[in-house]
TrEMBL record:
Gene3D superfamilies: Hexapeptide repeat proteins. This is Phenylacetic acid degradation protein PaaY. SUPFAM superfamilies: Trimeric LpxA-like enzymes.
Length: 199
């Protein structure tokens, strides 16, 4: 669901996928290979929101800000299910965990990981490669090379997902019973523990 608001019509690159149950409104620019999940709201009614290439904003996330602001989610930023980004800027290849809240004028550095359920207060500056957890969010350590490699691999799945959705996502009527030839789901993801163990 893409909405013009006043004089602003969202710009969405053709390689990106916005789920029909998401809402993108007004002054929003979405780059290449971005995924916007169902229930996500990206509301550029009061200010500009830029998603650079390869960003994903997953199910039930909200991206918004106070009037007159402009925010950027930089290349490869990964916003987990249910997170809220309100007037904050996200650095390249960072991860915002599920149900986290990042408040106004916060700056999340490149390759940071914000843990699930974290609360990052307004105007907080998080340096590059920081691991942040808790409420209020606190830096507990630096993100290791292994952790960022695992995060990057996970984000690549979301960067492939727009193509998969364009090619295969279709509204259908449900089956009424399980077919004999039901396909098996692919297993292409490793937890951080499994990712470390493969080396």
């Amino acid at each position: 669901m893409i909405y013009k608001f006043k004089n602003h019509t969202p710009v969405v690159h053709e390689t990106s996928f916005v789920h029909p149950l998401a809402a993108v409104t007004g002054n929003v620019i979405i780059g290449k290979d971005c995924y916007i999940g169902p229930g996500a709201a990206i509301r550029g009614d009061w200010g500009e929101i830029i998603l650079e290439d390869g960003v994903n904003v997953q199910e039930n996330c909200t991206v918004h800000m106070f009037p007159g602001k402009s925010i950027t989610l930089k290349k490869g930023a990964h916003v987990g299910h249910g997170a809220i980004i309100h007037g904050a800027n996200l650095g390249e290849n960072c991860l915002v965990g599920m149900n986290s809240v990042i408040m106004d004028d916060a700056e999340i550095g490149d390759e940071c990981i914000i843990g699930a359920l974290a609360f990052v207060k307004a105007e907080t500056k998080i340096p590059k490669r920081s691991l942040v957890v808790g409420n209020p969010g606190k830096i507990i350590k630096q993100v290791s090379d292994e952790m960022i490699a695992w995060k990057t691999a996970g984000t690549r799945l979301y960067q492939q997902l727009p193509t998969d959705c364009h090619e295969s996502l279709k509204e259908v009527q449900p089956l009424r019973e399980i077919p004999d030839n039901r396909p098996e789901q692919e297993n292409f993801y490793k937890t951080l523990k499994e990712f470390k163990g493969k080396k």
